[in-house]
Each structure stands twice: as C-alpha cells, then as structure tokens.
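Q: Structure tokens for this one, please.
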Amino acid sequence: MRSRRIQVVIAALAVIGSTMVATPAAQAMPPDPDLSVTSVTLGRTSVAVSGMNLYPVPVTLKASYPPSSPPDAHKVLSVVLRRSGGVGPINLIVAGDLVRTVGTAQNGTWTGSLKVPSTANGTFKVSGVVEFDSYTGDDGSKPGPTPFDGPSIAIRGVHIPKIGVSVVPRVVPFNAAYQVRAAIYDSATGKAYGTRILLQVVRSNLCAEYDAGSRYTNTAGLLVTNFAGVGGDVNHCVRVRGKYVDQLAFHFYPLRPGVVSAAPVKTSAPVGEVVLVNGSVKGGYFPTPRPVTLQRLYSTGWRGVSSATVRQSGRITLAAPPAPAGSITYRAYLPTFGHYQAGASKTFVIRGT
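A: Here is the predicted structure, written as tokens:
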C-alpha cells in the first residue's frame, strides 16, 4: 500500500511546463604548458551500474613536468572523460584526486579511481588531464585540461535516476513566495529507491557553484524547498552532486504570468489619425526581443492590428491604426514567451471623431 502511495506522489510531480535551459558552456582556459601526459590506463573497458550506485574503476596516469618543477610539486592530478557515444543525462565524468604514488613531478605515476554513475550510460573517452579538479579552469585562475587522446569505457546504466519537478503555485505571481517540489526516482520503474538521497534545489549562480548545500529527500524521494518571492525570474536547478561534477541535474524557470498594462495617449482623435499606445510589461530583462501585439475587437473576436517589442526598461509603444468614425475597443496582448504565460491588458476605447 505504501509503495502505491509513493508511485502516486511521484506521478503527481509532473515536470512543469517551463523552459528547459542548457547551462552555458564554461569559457575554456588554455592548458598547462608544463604538463606532459604519457599515458592513461583504465582498469576496465566496460562496467554496468545500477541506480544511485557508483562503480569504482582504477585509473593509472603517467605524466611529467619540466626539470624546473620542484620534485614534490603537482601531487594531485585529475583525468577528464567526455561522452563519445550513446545517450545519457550527463556528458562529463572526472577521475579526481589521483595521487602520485611513484616517482617525482618530473617523471611520475598518479593512481586513483573513477567513480562511475549510472547516469553516464554510454561510452566515455579520456579527453584530458588537469591538476587538482579544475577540469574547465572556468574561474580564470587555473589552466584548463591538457588534451590527451586516451582510452574509452563503455558504461551500461540501468535503473537510471530521473528528476521530476513541480512548482506551487504552478504560475508564480511576481514577488510571491513559492515552493519547488522535487522528486528523484527510478526511470525504469517509476518508483522511488526507498532511501534518502541528497539533492541540491537552488537558483541563480548557485546552479553553477560546486557546493551550494544539499539536503536529504524523504524515503519516497521527495524534497520540498521554499523560496522567497524576490529573485524568481532566474535559472533554477535540482542537482545530484558528485564530488567533482553533477551526477544528474534538471534546470528550469518557474512559470510567470503575462502582465501588461497599456493606455492610449488620447482617447479620441480625428478620423484617419494614428494614436500611440504606451504601456509596460512586468518581468525581467529579455535578451531576445519579447513581442507584444495591439489587438482590436471585431465582431468575430480579437485581431492583431500592430506589434512591437518590449524595451529593456519594460516599456512598450504600440500604434493604433488610423481611427475610423465611432468607438473602437483595443487591448495589448502578450503571447506566451519562454516561461512567461500569455496575458492581456485591460481594454480601452479610442473614439474617431
């Protein structure tokens, strides 16, 4: 009976109808010119991983630094593997904290393990080596990976975890508090794993931070996070953090209402005169122009008569066509745009005289 209740709860957490967003690629930094990689050896050519488990694969790295490097320097290196085949939720895994166990920095051997998650389903290939775990060097303070064409590993992920998200309320009013309800479950069965799992549910720059703080779900795989109303128009994410990179992540924006106000500069004009309509749209800045339409009410319904885009300030200016004699009813209309819902202003009348 309890299993049935868990399934019902997870099914209720349908993925919200928000805009899925890809995390911007980090700015690649030049590799360390002093690092020379001789070989990378993986202890297995294939593995099978189930659910939330991690499969340890031995990694041996041989590399060298110039004679000018102190012999006891560069004690920890990492190997970067990127997806080369198959389909899965992640495209990057890292064998981090490889410790030098033989030799010196000038000619050494570093060993450790690659912890393989089931979400890495597919084929991954060694693509580079970097000191510590700065696999991108995206903070600008460390070099990026030294490219190396290394071996591949075939990963068969089964019972791969999946994240479902719902936001309450479904469309979040501006400046209103809201909840994010996240669920993690077995994509093969649709059921919870029955254990408490660490999730990060955060927003804005914390979606790119290494450790933004994780909390445990309940045994049904559910975690509820409350957010204040300020700052809701930013990227949100639910992450399963690995030691170096995410094992799984889901990025989204909460849905927002379409809120627009508009009024003509004058409510009557001589027949044939164009009347400007000014207004504003509520919401954040849009790097892609957001359209807005002036609609006129006909006997058959609303019909667009002019259009414009929302300025960076949120202001809009539309043009009502040359007025005919009599009173004409208009409104400003916002179509659905990204995570913003459609909306319309109050109606207003322009009278042709």
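A few notes: Confidence is low (pLDDT under 50) at residues 1-12, 14-26. The first strand starts at residue 36 and ends at 42.
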